[in-house]
Design goal:
Blueprint lengths: L8 H5 L13 H30 L3 H26 L3
Helix pairs in contact: 2-3
């Protein structure tokens, strides 16, 4: 991805380049990294959908609910990745 390209909300929140291991040697670590990537992509899609709904909505209550959902998805993604990487 280009440095100056606008990143979507999911990319900023979930798929932060700093969180992706650059060098993986162990087979268990490779499997974990692949599963982390799978999790991030799925959470990313959900976050993008909620962000789109929030942007399209005219209802303040619906916008608020979308924001809460995005925050909870961020939290859920973090705990999923922690669970996958626990004690590797």
């Amino acid at each position: 991805m280009q440095k100056n390209a606008k990143k979507s909300l999911w990319f900023k929140i979930v798929y932060n380049k700093e969180n992706i291991p650059e060098k993986v040697n162990d087979e268990k670590e490779i499997e974990s990294a692949m599963f982390q990537d799978y999790l991030r992509k799925n959470f990313a899609e959900l976050i993008n959908q909620m962000d789109g709904l929030r942007n399209d909505s005219e209802s303040p209550d619906q916008k608020r609910l979308c924001s809460i959902a995005i925050s909870k998805l961020e939290e859920a993604c973090m705990f999923c990745v922690k669970a996958v990487t626990y004690d590797i």
